[in-house]
């Protein structure tokens, strides 16, 4: 068993900043509810990155405060937000045309599991008492040109969230392009998972062992 | 003369029968036609099928109708909300039906319903439990599932400005499902923040042309 207490894992902010490195100038980006939304706090001022909100905003700004709050101007998590100069509003069908029609460059979603083929499970655990709710996850997972997953590498009980086959109900098949975790950045390729980078103090072999699935290392 | 403006919310929801299928605009509270839903709660129609993104929360709006036992079935993408108690309890007890639809598929099914299209193929949901029982097809190497259009007896929507022909504008993300729901119902009823004279709305800014709207009512019927 590998002792992870000796290494400094990436914080949520660290993962967000790592993801930002891979978002180019001019990209249209949709950030999923939860951790992915925090990425908006780290967008660099020297790149124009246009945020899309599934409920009909292109050019979404930061969360609204004080007098800016308008209960009819909210993000996908139903929090009051602002709009940037150049923003536009549209109805739900057009907003999902942007998503489903392949117009959004990057979507970042959280996940319970990602398979070696890039299948993603992120909308329910199968708990019979839980109320199922899917929202825009299935549309976003398939529709965006690139799907990034932001998640912890391991579950609370230490099991890898990278799996051979998802055991939780699927959100989409072969959809994920990159996985950003508190331990590593991993590309999903036709040849399988490829570790792009990982945290200091952890060897590639240790990362592989923790992940529990076949993985190659990127040619540096 | 065309006069779609109705003097009160009570009259605006008149005629909604038991067993009706009703589209309700809104994404959380934004764009939710709260006064129309209150009037429907008072009117008392039962065995309703409600199609809306969420299943309401905090005992208001759709949650109020569910709590009063007026709703037989919810068609929505995200029923789970903070304090969505009314729905959650009935669902766990098997006393309310749920048809869960991915949000984009929900929007497109409504759009198709309004456009006279019977259904469409989409990749969204392929290979998931929400594809069970649906036809599939491979087009240009991509797997698709067939989804049918949604049409309804009524649409209850919230808009910003409206005139007596039923032309509507919206406010911010309160627009959400309003424009597409307006097209997909036999009778669309719009709750507006402001009534304006014919000609006051710049035709360039009208979002929902009046042809899609049957009744317009100012907020709670106040003027």
What are the main properties of this structure?
heterodimer, A: 220 residues, alpha/beta, Glutaconate Coenzyme A-transferase, ten-stranded mixed β-sheet, 15% helix, B: 223 residues, 21% helix, globular
Describe the model.
The complex is a heterodimer of chains A (220) and B (223). With 220 residues, chain A is α/β, with parallel strands linked by helices. Chain A has one domain (10-217): Glutaconate Coenzyme A-transferase (3-Layer(aba) Sandwich), CATH 3.40.1080. Chain A is built from four helices and 13 strands. In chain A, helix 2 packs across helix 3. The longest helix of chain A is centred in the first third of the chain and has 10 residues, at 12-21. Chain B is α/β, with parallel strands linked by helices and 223 residues long. Chain B has one domain: Glutaconate Coenzyme A-transferase, CATH 3.40.1080.10. Chain B contains six helices and ten strands, in the order H-E-H-E-H-E-H-E-H-E-E-E-E-H-E-E. Chain B has a seven-stranded parallel beta sheet, sandwiched between helices. Chain B has a three-stranded antiparallel beta sheet with strand order 5-7-6. Chain B starts with 8 loop residues before the first helix and ends in a 5-residue tail after the last strand. The mean pLDDT of chain B is 95. The interface between A and B is large, with 38 and 48 residues.
Strand tally of chain B is 10
Q: Specify the CATH class of chain A.
A: Alpha Beta
CATH architecture call of chain A: 3-Layer(aba) Sandwich
| Mean pLDDT level of chain A | 96
**Widest beta sheet: strand line-up of chain B:** 4-3-2-1-8-9-10
- Say which CATH homologous superfamily of chain B is assigned: Glutaconate Coenzyme A-transferase
Number of domains of chain B: 1
Cα shape of chain B: globular
Q: At the third CATH level, what is the topology name of chain B? A: Glutaconate Coenzyme A-transferase
Q: What is the helix fraction of residues of chain A, given as a range?
A: 10-25%
